[in-house]
Amino acid sequence: MKKMVFGLAMALSLSAAQAADIVDTAKSAGSFNTLVAAVQAAGLVDTLKGPGPFTVFAPTDAAFAKIPKATLDALLKDKAALTKVLTYHVVPGKVMAASVKPGPVKTVEGSNLTVSAAGGTVSVDKAKVVKTDVVADNGVIHVIDSVIMPK
To answer: pTM of the full predicted structure?
Structure first.
């Protein structure tokens, strides 16, 4: 009985240790270093570590690399503009891929992004969704191949 209780306690503590918020999930993935640095520069870490839930369309490092270096450097130094771009990638609530419907979706930034589906490919604005349903304990991440910009 003692072994069973100890094993259950270990399993519970391991599952609690494995639970991670949006920011920690992105950090541990290893392909969102630029996104995490941008979230830190914009002062959004505490928000994205908060209770949420959030749905984040997360551009990879390769997506950020498509932006000219001078443009990206300027964006990273302009907190207001950076916050606007980053919050455009976030939708309130936890929206799993199976629940996504084509059309306009209101972002945390305040304007709408457009979700479209054609030929088995889902896009948000002009960014292609390349991986879905990366679950965090306060939401979900869908990986996109480009940085999307608010209008």
So the answer is: 0.85
Taking the domains of the chain in order of start, what are their residue ranges?
22-144
Show pLDDT as tens, one digit a residue, over the chain (151 residues): 444 333 333 333 333 445 699 999 999 998 999 999 999 999 999 999 999 899 999 999 999 999 999 999 999 999 999 999 999 999 999 999 988 889 999 999 999 999 998 888 899 999 999 999 999 999 999 999 999 999 8
**Separation of alpha carbons 49 and 123, rounded Å:** 26
CATH numeric code, 22-144: 2.30.180.10
| Amino acid in the structure at residue 97 | A
